[in-house]
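The instructor's notes for this session suggest beginning with a concrete chain rather than abstract definitions. Hand out the sequence below and ask the class to guess, before any prediction is shown, which regions might be ordered.
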Amino acid sequence: MTLDAEVRRLELATDRPFTISRGTSTATEVVVVELGDGEHTGVGAAGPARHYGETAATVEAVMPDLLAVAREVDPDETRRLDRRLRETVRRNPAARCAVSIAAHDLAGKRRDLPLHRRYGLDPDAAPRTSFTVAIDDPEAMAAAAGEAVDAGHRVLKVKLGTDRDRERLTAVREAAPDARIRVDANEAWTPKEAVTNAAWLADADVEFLEQPVPASDPEGLRYVYEHAEVPIAVDESVERPEDVPAVADRADVAVCKLMKCGSVDAAVAFAQTARACGLEPMLGCMLESSASIAAGAALAPLFDYVDLDGSLLLAEDPYEGPVAADGRIELTERPGTGARER
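After discussion, reveal the predicted structure:
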């Protein structure tokens, strides 16, 4: 089968400065991939993260090799495509994922089949996404939390990892007394700090604590898991399904991101592996457009928790997708991923 391909790099501004413990972003670069068969066009996108060694430039650099594979494999043969892409480019999971999403979208459009139906998933089982409150002054974080709740969000993910963390979380909890709150430290704390902080997180009724210590400190993670008063989630500590068993004895929740694991099928395998290891799977994202977020949303029913607000954090998303402004995931019968250009 001969497929036409188009690759575009887009710079997308964030709605407001997005700060986590590692730094601040005011924009993100994504690489959009389109695969066409003359009748239908599949759309995917890479949301590369420098933390994992990828940028828009590295995505573009390997894309010719990945597209050569895509032209050789039938889009319906997604697992074969996934294997061939990994054999061709061992790293660069976000780049591979862009091609994977585009192929899934194309296959769905050719068959008039939504992606969630391809996996036999119940759209009503998709959890609401959390909405991220980035690091800022306590007053600003409280205001952001209040705005999110007023917009209909029921679950907040609060970024911490500063010298005034307790003050910041207290401000958010006072502004959103009825919201479910999760905390993400993005590797910023030492194990002892994490255990100490977990005590007042528990007092604030925090649902779980995500990545409290560096991924490079697995024994520190074990210490936190064994002593913390709140459940522990891991994100940076797990990238692929193969990484999950190693954290099964030191975490409660494992966070999957399509841009980390490299394909739609790998994300499905991640959820299955997490459950087999006794962990609750959570689906996250980077700062991304709906061209890629939509694929994750289609898989949301496989996961216990969802953090797919990346497109909601943009000043403007060039694509429409299934994640609503209030955090609901509205999976429709639109074929493929359901994303479409505005």
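Then share the key points. The longest helix spans residues 93-111. DSSP finds eleven helices and 13 strands in the chain.
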